[in-house]
Design goal:
alpha+beta, 6 helices, 4 strands
Length: 152
């Protein structure tokens, strides 16, 4: 994907450290020297192009509820259908395909462990597939980010 200057600047500057204030997009515009409407239009364009998956916080799940990594072994011909079903849950904040027996992986976050158990049971009932449930035992803090290189 070929990014324009503003898209490039937004990703490089704000994939970590989005402003925590009442008007974050206005603050982003101030920092980048443009208008808030330009920031919003740029984010919308990246979203529509499929190059932006989400804008939101990453938080310590144990302080705000419960979280688990889950996987399903989905027959190849059903992968799209099952992925769309998984994506219907607001509790899912990542969902991705892998080349493995367990080929659909997703993270569930909810208010408590019983809530996650209900979602996993519902998915099993709806899909006929048994979720692999991998709750976090030890947290590893990885500051994942990608520098885009030179500005266009």
């Amino acid at each position: 994907m070929n990014l324009d200057l503003l898209s490039h600047q937004l990703i490089d500057r704000f994939q970590h450290g989005m402003p925590l204030c009442p008007e974050p997009y206005k603050e982003m515009a101030r920092i980048l020297g443009c208008r808030e409407s330009q920031i919003l239009a740029c984010l919308q364009e990246m979203d529509q192009a499929g190059s932006l998956s989400r804008i939101g916080p990453v938080f310590e799940h144990s302080r705000a509820g419960a979280s688990t990594l889950a996987a399903l072994a989905v027959p190849a011909e059903r992968l799209q259908q099952v992925a769309e079903r998984v994506n219907q849950y607001p509790e899912v904040n990542h969902n991705y395909a892998r080349e493995h027996f367990y080929n659909l992986w997703f993270v569930l976050t909810g208010p408590d462990r019983p809530h996650l158990d209900r979602v996993l049971k519902e998915l099993e009932r709806d899909t006929g597939l048994m979720p692999l449930d991998l709750p976090m035992v030890t947290a590893f803090r990885i500051d994942l980010g990608f520098a885009l290189g030179e500005t266009p």
